[in-house]
Amino acid sequence: MLTPKENLLETLKKDGKPECLCNSYTMFRGIPGDPVFKYIRGNRVRGTNSYDPWGTYILFPEDAPAAVPLVTPENQVIKDVAEWKKYVKIPDLAAHCSQGWEDAIAARDAIDQDKYLTMTVMGTGIFEQLHMLMTFEDTLTNFLLEPEAMHELIDAICEYRLTYMKLIVEHLHPDCIVSHDDWGSKTSLFFSPETWREFFKEPYRKLYDYLHANHVIVMHHGDSFCEPIVEDMAEIGIDIWQGVLPTNNIQAISEKVGDRMLLMGGIDSVIDRADATEEEIRRETRRACDAYGNLKGFWPGMTYGGPGTIYPQVEEIIIDEINRYNTEHYGAAIF
Predict the structure, then answer these.
(1) How far apart are CA 223 and CA 301, in angstroms?
(2) Exposed e or buried b per residue across 298-323, where buried means at least 16 C-beta atoms within 10 angstroms of its C-beta
(3) pLDDT, tens only, 189-245
(4) CA 259 – CA 263 distance, rounded (Å)
(5) What's the CA gap between 120 and 335, in Å, rounded?
(6) Which residues contact residue 268 at a Cβ distance below 8 angstroms, ignoring those fewer than 6 apart?
(7) CA distance 192 to 184
(8) Number of helices and strands (H, E) in the chain?
(9) What does 23-75 look like in DSSP terms, one character per residue?
């Protein structure tokens, strides 16, 4: 029987022979404690409000599942994108994060790497960083009104993220990096495909070329409607699109790119509720497995950008139901 790691690696191969469907994040073990993550997001403490190193105001209410930025016309970092250099102080990751890797290295080394793949998460992608520096409305209109300044700012953010990736790779060399950037809502992109291609395609190709050159699996998290750009996503080197909402036509996407880019998701997050019944959770999980389980590259799981659900019992039931499906259809359930 294959290990969870081996099953995923077989799934990634064009002509691989996995024993069953991959199951959520069960084949990964995260590496905690990396200094960059702590420096960039360490201000996010439940029950507090704070500013991150970029100067963005962050809210983390006691009863919220996660921290969120609050960007208004009054507090936005960039008042005029044509003069973005006047307002933006890009965090110096090399200066702040060159030391203190010992705990993360020890945590990585403690993972059973014969059985599991090691993983780190990089939140706040290029587009997300833009709308954390100025209002969402300003971000979108500036693509039209100030394209030259937006290209410059995106290039600067890209270099910042490349430095981030280099620090992670040089110190930890994880098997996989989960790179976050949400490019759309549940039902549409936030911009035209042409705008995405003009502003984001080449910066992301640069980032993901670096990861591939260093033998790191690229998992791009985007719990969004990205159907119009899936060919581009595969082209720039995304190995796994994580967060595929069922509002995308997963069958059609699989036909286009399923042999080049894995599609992880398909389970509607509406079941992640305190009052969701076990029957409801199992029914939605089974629906996704039945609907997409025979498609090229499909991999069932929640669409969140990391392991876990808001309500822990939900994830336990999802994983168990996928294991049941795998046992029934493939005679194997890999833990």
Answers:
(1) 12
(2) bbbbbbbbebebebeebbebbbbbbb
(3) 999 999 999 999 999 999 999 999 999 999 999 999 999 999 999 999 999 999 999
(4) 10
(5) 20
(6) 245, 246, 284, 288
(7) 10
(8) 14, 10
(9) -TTTTEEE----HHHHHHHTT--TTEEEE-TT--EEEE-TT-SS-EE---TTT
What tokens does 159 get? 């270099």
Q: Calculate the alpha carbon distances from 108 to 20, 112, 296 in Å.
A: 27, 9, 31
3-class SS shares of the chain: helix, strand, coil, % to 5: 45, 15, 40
Give the helix/strand (H/E) hosting 228.
none
User: CA 324, 285, 275 angle in degrees (round to 5)?
Assistant: 115
pTM: 0.96
Buried b (16+ CB within 10 A) or exposed e, 46-55: eeeeeebbbb
Minimum mean pLDDT among 173-182, 302-311, 319-328: which range? Answer: 302-311
